TrEMBL record:
Positions with biased composition (Basic and acidic residues): 37-49
Organism: Lacibacter sediminis
Swiss-Prot/TrEMBL GO biological process terms: proteolysis
Full protein name: C40 family peptidase
Residues of the signal peptide: 1-24
Family under the similarity heading: Belongs to the peptidase C40 family.
């Protein structure tokens, strides 16, 4: 996770420094006429070379050109801050976070306290949160309780999990807790201890309480 965090911080720093790099190649303005003539006749450098080693003869493969930097910056701008934030939380490459509506909904509900029987941002329980997420992101109407949601889902092996699958747990007898799978063994749910949050299936508590997973979506495409 630290590796991804450093990568994304470097990316953001790169974006903010692009204008600085660009300005560095602009000719300085002079108040004298002679300086103006010299600037007009000056051949402006097309590339910015950045050494990646201490060697005095740097091979072509070890330098970045201005055009390359600009292209990389443009690709980074395709991703929102929310995508970067959840890529860090899930410890995955930002390109993995494609379903923007899913993570925007999670962000909007993040930290909502748990309340048994609750259905609003003043308090919500696990099955109501799953019901809200599946309708808001995938236009999929689910039953109200975790047990009913399990009955509606097609049981799948844990090594076939995809974003949008349901994860079921036995926390107080039978099917008593449910969440929605994201990536990298992480799932989002309304926890009794922390409200709406993301947890890891490898955590001791959840691995012991895990019953299995079910799929209610034919695919994980968001609603239009």
């Amino acid at each position: 996770m630290i590796r991804h965090l450093l990568t994304y911080l470097s990316a953001i720093l790169l974006l903010t420094s692009c204008s600085t790099v660009k300005n560095a190649f602009q000719p300085k303005q002079s108040s004298t006429a002679s300086a103006t003539v010299e600037e007009k006749n000056e051949v402006r450098p097309e590339y910015k070379r950045v050494r990646t080693s201490s060697s005095t003869s740097t091979p072509q493969s070890s330098i970045f050109q201005t055009k390359d930097v600009a292209s990389y910056s443009s690709s980074l701008e395709l991703f929102s801050l929310s995508q970067f934030k959840y890529a860090i939380r899930l410890d995955v490459p930002v390109e993995t976070i494609q379903n923007k509506s899913l993570y925007e909904l999670i962000d909007n509900w993040w930290g909502t306290p748990y309340r048994l029987g609750g259905t609003t941002q003043k308090g919500i329980d696990c099955s109501a949160f799953v019901q809200t997420l599946m309708m808001g992101v995938f236009a999929m109407q689910l039953p109200r309780t975790a047990r009913e949601q399990k009955e509606m889902a097609s049981w799948i092996p844990m090594d076939d999990l995809k974003e949008g699958d349901l994860i079921f747990f036995n926390t107080r007898g039978g099917v008593s807790h449910v969440g929605v799978y994201l990536h990298n063994n992480k799932f989002v749910h309304a926890s009794t201890s922390g409200g709406v949050m993301i947890s890891d299936l490898n955590e001791t508590y959840w691995s012991r309480k895990l019953l299995g997973a079910g799929r209610v979506l034919q695919n994980s495409s968001p609603k239009p």
